[in-house]
Model the fold of this input.
Amino acid sequence: MPSEALSLSQARRVRRVTADRPWVWLTLGWRDMMSNRAISLGIGGALTLFGWALSLLLFESGAQWAILPATAGFFILAPLLAVPLYEISRRAELGQPTTLADAVQPFRRPGGQIAMMGLVLLLIHLFWVRVAGLLFALFFGGVALPSLARLPLAMLQSEMLLPFLIIGTGFGFVLAAVTFAIGAVSLPMLVDRDVSWLEAVTISIEAVLENRQAMALWAGLIVLFTGLALVPFFLGLVVVLPLVGHATWHAYRDLVVR
Done:
């Protein structure tokens, strides 16, 4: 699968790829999605419904401030949510058809390595939501919360908006970078191989460090596509999540030496 331009790193656990390689991953991901559109788009639709339900729950409970952090936390949990998509692409690579039961099979494998990786991502997500809540309370704690529709305008009119954005964005960027490094190929690897979650994380970090330009582009494309998908109230996730999930499988296959 990897092109002739790819070269093996000294450690021979990861490959070095060209900076524009993410476009190939997206092309292959689109092919897999179209070949399995019923299951792939169904998974995307189910997660869209989950996003609606979570937003409604937070709104009804009076925690409007948590909607944006929880939405941002989607980037953290996305690698775990895409596990069935990795399995679909793995089986497609082997020429095997996939049912929904086949797609969720990795979650039922013995050893619990995927569950452990999911726990790590969940803890990071909860940590992010907690920090976001503390930052919001620090900068806007003395202000009565308006309705969800008026919340953005109220924040724009506050003199605390700029420091809130600087500190919150800076902290979020660091956390997102760490999460991306540990999750870039670790979960596809756990779907494909019998390795520990710690070994998968280590190799994922190696792959990111060995391919800084390609992975920076890949991370930027994920943020761009997912951000655009979230704008129409999560509707775009029906397509974007399966596309990125399948493409992530091909990123793993390109980056990690078998």
Remarks:
- The mean pLDDT is 84.
- Residues 21-140+167-255 form one domain.
